[in-house]
Every structure is written in C-alpha cells, then in structure tokens.
Amino acid sequence: MHVENYFSNFCSQQYYLRSKGKPYWVQTVMGGINKKTKDHFLSYTDIYGTQFKNRNYVITGLGLHYCQVLFENHWRPDLSEQEARKLMEDCLKIMFLRDKKAGDSVQFGLITADGVKIEEPYQLQGAQHDLKYVNDRPNEWYLGRRAIV
C-alpha cells in the first residue's frame, strides 16, 4: 500500500471523528516516494480532515504563523539541499526567538528514492547569541528545556 492510500484513509478517519465532535488534535504530515514511478508525495491534514495534497513544502503549528512568508519568498523548485537546509535553519532560529518554550536543537532527515537518512541532532548556531528577553523574567534566558539564571 502506498503512502497516498494511508493518507486518504487517515483523512477519512479525521473527518469522521471531527463529525462526531471528537477529533484528534493534531496536524499530520505524511510523505514518501513511490518506488516504481519515483514520484514524491508530501501532504498534510488538519484536525478537521481537510487534505492538502502534493505540496512542495509543509509548515505546521506556530511555524505556519512565523515562517510561511519566509518560505513563500525564498522557496523555488530548483532549491538545492544546502539552500533548503539554510532556509529551514533560518525559520527555526525565528521560532526559537519568538517562542519562549522552543528548544534550540534540531534534527534533519532526508527522504530520497535511495532511502531515508536521519542525521544526529545539533544545536543551532547563533540562536543563543541573538537571545534577548524571551522569557517573562528579564534575568532568565531560556535555552533548550531549562532556564539559565
């Protein structure tokens, strides 16, 4: 069964549960590559079961509010892997500075026709140095998952 079939099934379940008043409160992203045709599939569904199919990129959660314009202005079909990584890192730095509960570590994964490659997590460079007052108390800086006084 291809990922498109799983996606359609999940969207139907989301819509059914939403109609019953008990939706899963998640935005689900599904992606994959068809081994026979080498076509890629990247789509997501919201809590209402609405389907957004065959997207070039997917932004969810608070990133939709903070980073959508950045992606719309800088994304293009011939974007290299390094340029895409830089664009995502810039978005994650913005998220780190805007959301006081966000962490500054990131882990990238790459899906190609050859397989899946998941990299080791690392800390964003420069995010800590741009940090001003991201917490309610000006003497605390929020780094990772702990406050430093």
UniProtKB/TrEMBL annotation:
Keywords: Nucleus. SUPFAM superfamilies: N-terminal nucleophile aminohydrolases (Ntn hydrolases). GO terms for biological process: proteolysis involved in protein catabolic process. GO terms for cellular component: cytoplasm; proteasome core complex. InterPro entries: Ntn_hydrolases_N (IPR029055), Proteasome_sua/b (IPR001353), Proteasome_suB-type (IPR023333). It holds the Pfam family Proteasome. This is Proteasome subunit beta type-4. It comes from Strombidium inclinatum. The lineage of its organism: Eukaryota, Sar, Alveolata, Ciliophora, Intramacronucleata.
